[in-house]
Amino acid sequence: MLGSTRLTSGFRLYDLGLYPAAVKCRELKRALIGEVYEVDTETFSALDELEEYPQEYTRELVETDYGQAWIYLYRLSVMGLPEIPNGDWCQK
């Protein structure tokens, strides 16, 4: 792990039970807390499979404290799911 990072705006985090779901939002004050990892091609491919990319999650590049990194964004409906207002899955 390179370290933790805070994306200061543009995301909401939802609780899916066993794992979180980040989605884009237009609200500027919605932060997201996460971890940045450096991974090889094989691990990146395994992550895509784990995240069911591109069916359940998509991904896009975001700017972090460690440079650009991929974020997985949930593609399915979040209607009725509990939001994690502080944007931190570990501190929900």
Q: Overview of this structure, please?
A:
The chain is mostly beta strands and 92 residues long. It has one domain (3-91): Hypothetical upf0131 protein ytfp (Roll), CATH 3.10.490.10. It contains one helix and six strands; from the N terminus they run ββββαββ. It has a two-stranded antiparallel sheet with strand order 1-4.
List the helices and strands and how they pair.
Elements: E1 3-7, E2 11-15, E3 20-24, E4 32-36, H1 41-50, E5 57-64, E6 67-74
Antiparallel strand pairs: 1-4, 2-3, 5-6
Tags for this entry?
39% strand, two-stranded antiparallel sheet, Hypothetical upf0131 protein ytfp, single chain, 11% helix, mainly beta, 1 helix, 92 residues, 6 strands
Structural class: mainly beta
CATH level 3 topology: Hypothetical upf0131 protein ytfp
Give the termini distance in whole angstroms: 21 Å
Whole-number count of domains: 1
The number of distinct β-strands equals 6
Strand percentage, roughly?
35-45%
Helix content: 10-25%
The order of strands across the largest sheet is 1-4
Average pLDDT reading: 94
Instruction: Name the CATH homologous superfamily.
Output: Gamma-glutamyl cyclotransferase-like
Low-confidence stretches: none
CATH architecture: Roll
| Helix and strand run | EEEEHEE
What is the top-level CATH class? Alpha Beta
Enumerate how many helices there are, as a single number. 1
